[in-house]
Write a structure and sequence with these properties.
- This protein is α/β, with parallel strands linked by helices.
- The chain has one domain (2-244): Metallo-beta-lactamase, Chain A (4-Layer Sandwich), CATH 3.60.15.
- The chain has eight helices and 13 strands.
- The strands form two sheets. Strands 4-1-2-3-5-6-7 form a seven-stranded mixed β-sheet. Strands 8-9-10-11-12-13 form a six-stranded mixed β-sheet.
- A hairpin with a 2-residue loop joins strand 8 and strand 9 (147-151).
Length: 245
């Protein structure tokens, strides 16, 4: 297994810069993405796809070379070999790239998909309009380092870790790599500084963006405890903090 770290989003806002930290995993049966960032169509026609209101609100910057598709090409790999994409949640900046890999099976929690199809306005239905093959995970069937987990149907050890609150089905992702685990916390925190500072100013934004803020805070506490108790076994990062890339 070989893991590539990709920045598939760039955000510039009054609060500062942010990124979209995706993973590309090479293994002997193909390529797997963890989250997909902003896609080709969105970089080519951002106002027609994402819309001016969302762009102004977030501060998205657009560059086709930043898409997962183009970065995979630059690595000398074939984007058509992306067989699976594991999704933390279905917010627009995490799944715009799905349509660039129409052959890929999409793995996510049942709760997140249900929230999407029920029409929550934080989601953009067109991002799933290509009707991808879905693998939905409805129940916790495993434990991982003391946390409830859902084993993903892939040919190596990888789990969805429920960290609900930011959205109704938001999950982290853990991947076994050699002697350590990669732990991707998604949007359970925006900045690593939140893990040490419970009153960090970005908490105000996280509160506003949370579907269930109590659940979000519980999830953040799970991440803190995980790192405190098992940090020596982990390489951990979230989606948005540039310092972690």
């Amino acid at each position: 297994m070989k893991v590539h770290h990709l920045n598939c989003v760039q955000i510039e806002s009054p609060m500062g810069s942010a990124i979209g930290h995706c993973l590309l995993i090479e293994h002997n049966q193909g390529l797997i993405l963890i989250d997909a960032g902003i896609g080709l169509n969105e970089t080519r026609a951002p106002f027609q796809t994402l819309g001016k209101e969302l762009i102004d609100l977030t501060g998205f910057q657009f560059d086709e070379e930043r898409t997962a598709y183009r970065q995979i090409e630059r690595l000398g790999l074939d984007p058509a070999q992306v067989s699976d994409i594991v999704i933390s949640h279905l917010d627009p900046d995490h799944i715009g790239g799905l349509a660039d890999f129409p052959q890929a099976r999409i793995h996510l929690s049942q709760e997140e998909y249900q929230a999407f199809v029920q029409g929550n306005d934080r989601y953009l239905p067109y991002q799933m309009a290509h009707k991808p093959d879905l693998a939905l995970y409805p129940t916790n069937d495993s434990t991982w380092l003391g946390l409830s987990a859902r084993k993903i149907d892939l040919p190596f050890e990888i789990y969805l870790i429920p960290l609900f609150g930011h959205t109704l089905g938001h999950c982290g992702v853990s991947v076994k790599q050699s002697e350590k685990w990669l732990f991707y916390a998604g949007d359970a925190y925006y900045l690593r500084a939140e893990l040490e500072n419970e009153n960090h100013p970005v908490d105000q934004l996280a509160t506003i963006r949370a579907v269930d803020n109590k659940q979000r805070l519980d999830a953040l506490e799970k991440v803190r405890s995980l790192i405190k108790n098992h940090g020596n076994q982990l390489f951990y990062f979230g989606y948005h903090d540039p310092s972690e890339f």
